[in-house]
Amino acid sequence: MLLLAVIFLLATLRMTNLYDNYVANPVLFLIPLVAVFALLTTRVFMAISSWWKAWFASALTIVSTTLFGVVGLYPNLIPSSLDPKFSMTVTNSSSSPLTLKIMLGVALTFVPIVIAYQVWVHFLFKEKLSDDEVAYEESHY
């Protein structure tokens, strides 16, 4: 897996311009280093049967690898292969302030309703059924 990660990083260097942001700001090279380190520590934790630590190291590998691509693409979200001016960027893809205010109101209204409904359903159906209640009867169908 480590070999594939190194091949991926080298292929990315050769075939894309993801490293432009990293060259402009070298401290960002910590992101791919964290990804490689987390990948190595995943294997170490698996070898000593520390499964939760291995899981968190694996999660850190996934997050830092994803962050590597996002930071490399910034400010583009989806680069255009036709012409860079057709790319979707952070600026031209964002919602208007009015839309964000409306969605904030919607979220603040409906998220508590959904959470309250989930809690109500949990308490409504929390009791286990007995074998007699589950037994097959024609009248239930």
Please tag this protein with its features.
single chain, 141 residues, mainly alpha, two-stranded antiparallel sheet
Q: In total, how many domains does the architecture comprise?
A: 2
The largest sheet, given as strand count, sense and whether it forms a barrel, is: 2 strands, antiparallel
Assembly context of the chains = single chain
H/E series, N to C? HHHHEEHH
User: pLDDT below 50 for ≥5 consecutive residues: which ranges?
Assistant: none
Spatial order of the strands forming the largest sheet: 1-2
Rg (CA only): 25 Å
Task: Give the total of beta strands.
Answer: 2
Tell me, what's the shape?
flat
Please report the distance between the alpha carbons of the first and last residues.
53 Å
Structural class: mainly alpha
Q: How confident is the prediction overall: mean pLDDT?
A: 90
- Helix count? 6
Strand content: under 5%
Helix content: 55-70%
Structure at a glance:
It is built from 6 helices and 2 strands, in the order ααααββαα. It has 141 residues and is mostly helical.
Give an overview in words.
The protein is mainly alpha-helical. It folds into two domains: 2-89; 95-127. Helix content is 65%, strand content 4%. It has six helices and two strands; from the N terminus they run ααααββαα. It has a two-stranded antiparallel ribbon. α1 (2-15) runs antiparallel to α3 (30-47) and α3 packs antiparallel against α4 (51-73).
Layout of strands and helices, then pairs:
Layout: H1 2-15, H2 20-24, H3 30-47, H4 51-73, E1 76-78, E2 88-89, H5 97-124, H6 131-134
Antiparallel strand pairs: 1-2
